[in-house]
Design a protein that fits this description.
The chain is built from four helices and four strands; from the N terminus they run ααβααβββ. The chain is an alpha+beta fold. The protein has a single domain, classed as 3-Layer(aba) Sandwich (Hut operon positive regulatory protein HutP), CATH 3.40.1510. β3 (about 120-130) and β4 form a beta hairpin. α1 (about 10-20) runs antiparallel to α2 (about 20-35) and α3 (about 50-60) crosses α4 (about 70-85). The chain starts with 8 loop residues before the first helix and ends with a strand. One of its GO terms (biological process) is positive regulation of gene expression.
Length: about 150
């Protein structure tokens, strides 16, 4: 069974990706209280591999995942791909379709279940814009991917 609503990993990842300023400080305090690991960043590209690389690099540099452990990188990769599918509405293509994204991302790692045996999970949230590679011709988008570690 999931912990209370404030300990839902996807919810926290989405809020972290979307918030800044005082709101961001509030969510990071909450994540620290839960003893969860997290990071956030920005990426813009027409190439999916650059998006994946930016998120993986941030997660490794901020010690959200251990880059030497295959299971951790594998879990992160699948969470990223699932989040990108949400952003691209299932067509995991950008440049080939003349689309570009400007995204803020958050990676959150924690224990969202009351039963400790359920272990750690990782969530990747993406929030930003997608559209034609012409400023002003984009719209908002959001994606979320969650995987067990």
């Amino acid at each position: 069974m999931l912990k209370e609503a404030k300990a839902r990993i996807g919810r926290n990842a989405i809020l972290l990706a979307m918030f800044d300023g005082e709101e961001e400080l509030e969510i990071t305090r909450h994540l620290d209280y839960l003893s969860w690991r997290y990071c956030k960043g920005k990426v813009g590209s027409m190439e999916l591999q650059k998006i994946v690389a930016a998120i993986e690099t941030a997660a490794k540099r901020n010690h959200v995942v251990d880059g030497e452990l295959y299971r951790e990188m594998h879990a992160l990769y699948h969470a990223v791909v699932e989040a990108v599918q949400g952003v691209t509405r299932g067509q995991v293509e950008l440049g080939d379709l003349m689309r570009t994204v400007g995204l803020r991302f958050a990676v959150v790692r924690g224990t969202p279940y009351e039963n400790a045996a359920e272990g750690e999970w990782i969530a990747v949230a993406l929030y930003g814009t997608i559209g034609a590679p012409i400023r002003g011709l984009e719209h908002e988008t959001v994606g979320l991917g969650i995987n067990h570690i």
